[in-house]
Amino acid sequence: GRLIRKSAHFISYLILGFLVSHALKNDASAASAIAWKRRGISLLLCVAYAISDELHQLFVPGRCPMLKDVLIDGSGAAIGILLYVGARELWLRWKNK
After folding, report:
1. Neighbouring residues of 40: CB distance < 8 A, sequence distance ≥ 6
2. Do 3 and 62 form a contact (C-beta atoms < 8 A)?
3. What pTM did the predictor assign?
4. Which of 5, 52, 54, 59 is a Cys-bridge partner for 65, taking CB atoms 3.0 to 4.6 Å apart?
5. Cβ(11)–Cβ(77) under 8 Å?
């Protein structure tokens, strides 16, 4: 049960990281400073959401916020952002052939 819940959170935040990265329309080249700044903003937004998700548990009976969950969620988001970067690079190479 617990491993499945944690995996579901990781995957949910992986998807969130991917989608937030796409929403910020990272059109700059992969190595540019602007691209890395947008990736950082994407990660900060996802981690802020993870923190707010944990804080709301203060008001749910039987639940409590856990830093470990924020780290799991943030890791999922970071992997999602990296997957977006890789997918975008592959897409651009394929498109420009």
Report:
1. none
2. no
3. 0.88
4. 54
5. no
Q: Residue 76: how many CA atoms within 13 Å on its side-chain side?
A: 22
Say if CB 72 and CB 10 are below 8 A apart.
yes
CA dist., res. 83 & res. 15, Å (int): 10
Q: What is the 3-state secondary structure (H, E, C) of 40-88?
A: HHHHHHHHHHHHHHHHHHHHCCCCCCCHHHHHHHHHHHHHHHHHHHHHH
Written as six digits, the tokens of 96 are 């420009």
* Cα 19 to Cα 12: distance, rounded to the nearest angstrom: 11
Give pLDDT tens digits along the chain (97 positions): 889 999 999 999 999 999 999 998 765 566 678 888 889 999 999 999 999 999 999 999 999 999 999 999 999 999 999 999 899 889 888 988 8
